[in-house]
Amino acid sequence: MSELATGARVVRALGARSIRQTFRRPQLISPIVVFPTLLLAIQTGGAGAGIELPGFPPVQSFLQFMLAGSMMQSMMLAGNSGGIAFAVDIEMGFTDRLFASPIPRFAIVLGRLAGTAALGLFASLWFLAIGLIFGAHIEGGVPGALLAIALITTSAIAVGGIGAAIALRTGSASVVQGLFPLVLVVLFLSSAFFPQELMIEPAKTIAEYNPFSFIVEGVREPIISGIDATQTLEAVAAIAGIILLGLVLSARALRHRLRTG
Amino acid sequence: MEAATATKNLAPNAPAPAWRTNMATIAALIARAKNELLRVPGAAIPGVLAPTIFFLGLNGVFGSLIHLPGFDSGSYESFIVPVSMLQGAGFTGAAAGVNLARDYEQGWVDRLLVSPAPRWVLLGGNVLAAAVRAFIPATFVLAIGFVIGVQWPGIDGLLVCYLMVAAMAAVAACWGSMLALHYKSQSAAPLMQAGMMGLILLTPAYAPLELLQPWLEKVARINPVTQVVEAARQGFVGGVTWGDTWPGLLAVAGLLAVLGALALREMRRTNV
Fold it and tell me: Structurally, how many domains does chain A consist of?
């Protein structure tokens, strides 16, 4: 069997393992499903009147506007949960056994990222389903929904890459878990929950340059108005940049771990 | 007089009264929680950081809601700061539940259960420790709030707010302890946190009742924590009145009675 085929089988097996691991542990699945769903309900109910503010983009409802932000939140927490689970594997010696086995090293990281991507896919489907059940329209239709799903799934790989890099570098689940508040900071300092023009300084200016604002706008546009080529390209560029950063950091962290043990 | 003197003379050899022993046990459990803070200062950081991030984040994101007709408060940071302080109390109380589950997993609870201390004393120590610890995130959030322009609530407003924070932490600790003793695992942590987060945010947390979506308005009107939020908030958005305070006191008393009884039932069911 070729090395590539072996690598693909390992990626598939490790990806499936990481998905099962997430669904078996409440600590891992809860941040991906429970918290973002709870916050979506609370923010939609609590700040829904905000759509009447002058300058708010035309939307069918605040729920429709919020779907992209909730998908982003869930996807980013999936990346963080993936990093925590990877660090637990390192702490428990499972990763050492993988390093000692005759499989390509890159497949170990890619397997984890495949699992995180699957969770990103799950997050996007979950929130689209919630939106449709509670009456939100997807203005871009099926192509718009597919675009939103694709952007969230690839974003999960991007964020998961950074989580994996930190897990490999530190080998500590508590350090990766400590990044949880950082995820919230990044989200609050983006246009995930409210239009950037209506945010208060300094959050407004930071959100303007935050790459996650570009991603969330790329996901939101097909939901609230239809596919927009410029915003889609900006989102793809932001995702590509974060994937590149995650891969570089993961490769360096992997080399460091193999060198130092 | 002679009898009193005789009792006093006998006191050193007589066993200490039960209430004094119970108070000493509660004080020891609170001291243990304090030692944990001093020895592992990093353990308190997430409980402080999360409400602070929510406070600053919500203020930055939803601050322009004050321009909506019907939003009476002139400053969103003053409107939202008591919610974040209560949220900190909720996280602290839930953390008390997580710590109890950890103590159970490590065998520490077994040792407490074989001691002659009554079950309510063991629970009381954990709950009161959480109430005291809740002052840390609340004070931190409030200090940040004053820096960014939260208006001074007055001494009475501040006292009522801190009373609500301590009581809410005790409510959350009862909830967390009940789940910890039921599931006997730290895996129940998300349930402890999500339950408190839902209870505190399904209130007029983000906007006044009249501006909430109809479904949330209905939920908020029957959620007892709405009264707690309104009582804690009153000094920050206006004056303190007895009419806005007593419903909050009644709500925390009711929540403590119900959740405390459920936690105690779990404690009594727990065998060594």
Answer: 1
Q: Could you tell me if A75 and A124 are in contact, meaning their C-beta atoms sit under 8 angstroms apart?
A: yes
A49–chain B Cβ distance below 8 A for any pair? yes
Q: Which residues of B67-100 are buried (b: 16+ CB within 10 A; e: fewer)?
A: ebeebebebbbbbbbbbbbbbbbbbbbbbbbbbb
Cβ contact B213–A48 (<8 Å): yes
Query: How many beta-carbon pairs below 8 A join chains A and B?
Result: 109
- Sketch the domain layout of chain B as residue ranges: 41-269
| Residues A46, B201: C-beta atoms closer than 8 Å | yes
pLDDT at position A13 is 85
Q: What is the pTM of this model?
A: 0.82
* Residues of B with Cβ-Cβ distance to A49 under 8 angstroms: 65, 68, 207, 211-213
Tokens linked to A91: 């702490």
Q: Determine contact: B207 vs chain A, CB below 8 A.
A: yes
Q: Give CA–CA dist B111/A97, Å, rounded.
A: 38
pLDDT at res. B193: 80
Dihedral in degrees, nearest 10, Cα atoms B49, B54, B57, B61: 180
Residue A35 contacts B where some CB pair is shorter than 8 Å: yes
ipTM here: 0.77
Asked if B57 lies within 8 A of A184 by C-beta distance, the reply is yes
Q: What pLDDT, in 10s, does the model give residues A82-129?
A: 888 888 888 888 888 888 888 878 888 888 888 888 888 888 999 999
The CA distance from A156 to A150, in Å, is 10
